[in-house]
Amino acid sequence: MARYIFITGGVVSSLGKGLASAALGALLQARGYKVRLRKLDPYLNVDPGTMSPTQHGEVFVTEDGAETDLDLGHYERFTGVNATRADNITTGQIYKTIIEKERRGDYLGATVQVIPHVTGEIKDFVLSDPGEGVDFVLVEVGGTVGDIEGLPFFEAIRQLGQELPRGHACFIHLTLLPYIKTAGEMKTKPTQHSVKELRSIGIQPDILLCRCEMEIPDSERRKIGQFCNVRQSAVIQAMDSPNIYSVPLDYHREGLDTEVLDVFSMLDTAPKPDLTRWEQISHTLSHPDGEVNIAIVGKYTALTDAYKSLIEALIHGGVANNVRVKFDWIEGEVFENEEALISERLTNVHGVLVPGAFGERGSEGMIRAVKFAREHAIPYFGICFGMQMAMIEAARNLAGIEQASSTEFGPTSEPIVGLMTEWTRGNEIELRQEGGNFGGTMRCGAYDAVLAAGSRVAEIYGGLSISERHRHRYEVNIAYREAIERTGLSFSGLSPDGILPELCERADHPWFVGVQFHPELKSRPFDPHPLFASFIGATKDRSRLV
Ligand code: GLN
User: Fold this and answer.
1) How far apart are CA 278 and CA 267, in angstroms?
2) CB of 357 sitting under 6 A from ligand 1
3) What confidence tens digit (pLDDT) does each residue in 432-459 have?
4) What are residue 325's DSSP bridge partners?
5) 388 C-alpha to center of ligand 1: Å?
């Protein structure tokens, strides 16, 4: 039977619980164990897909088309295990299930209550089949202890602590040890209070993972152990790290995996960890041979978490080319008012990337950025919305289709981009997205595409059949193929039925590729996505010129 590790957080949010969970998963993997990571999200939204990226960060899409929390992206990147719909649940989903059951009469007249019904649903989710041979299921509880909405989740994992066989549950609590500069002291009180809160709802943490800016003095470690009723060796220091891929090494050095295995009485039999690949990637990241500057002309640039996977995929591309990747975040909108700003901001960058976006705001600025990159031979990577803007740019500026636009921005006489139902005339591909706000119209999850033989993208992928994750409602209109291809922008990848443009590229440019999907979702530090590796390679070439 699998063993369960529950990861909770306290003191403040944004301590990096997702990353901590992912790093622990990686450490257990490094010892030869099979892991699965799951996330419990206490908010009421039925799915994170409906939440603003500037508030909640990126929506991470799984192979099976679930729109989930961005922490699942960390899980995938650190463990290489694909997450599924069954790895993320929200309060909204739980209540939806319960209310549907109640309406059907499944409760046979019983009073439906938080305990046992809501907690029961949470436990069922946690315990649902983790898959063949999984040794550890890591379950992260979103939010911080003490949040009203989190209570049923804490109660559910408390119950599991009793219901699982003895020695099959471990509770890790992530806290913060603030350093007060004026006093020159590290403060343990917030951690003490956070653990007190946790204990008041019946959970005694086995391990404390303490985020801090500097080393925890022994005296403070002892104090935390005593006040929080945790062994001193289980007070683990989690110092800020210059790069996230060295976190597994840091945690191992501090003894996190050892303490976890000790909780499960597995220390004597556990294999030694093989951390070679983590050592290698940390070394590569800290000894780059050069630097590239990428301008990201986007829409949600106020919160970089909105582009979490994109940032990581670009860093992976940097690893593949042994360069450090620097980001220049630009709101598309700023290019709309000041033409001169475009050349000022883009002339010296080594690559331009227009990422995914929804809605009209900023799109004109992005189209201008595409034009500038095309005309000045700056490597250009258009992702999803970024490919759609590249198509509109070519149609308007090169094919003479002045009114070229997307129906996402309102009715247009030249729908270069539009809803697939507007022109596929009964050939609509099957949509997997069920229900919900965007329900039924968003293409989400993995879909196949076929690449044109001899194209640049076929060379980059090293094959003609690919599968990539999607998340969009609009499509490039295949009816404009001929007109756009005449401008030099070729449709080098299509859906297998030939109806939906999936990739495009320019042969007359050092590197100009647009993709309708989100390749960043599948990039891994140990397996950089070929498009990102190739794009960063092209930006590296440019960095030697400008
Ligand atoms: N807004 C566009 C669409 O829905 C692009 C979406 C995206 O970039 N993810 O098709």
Assistant:
1) 22
2) yes
3) 333 333 444 688 999 999 999 999 999 9
4) 292
5) 8
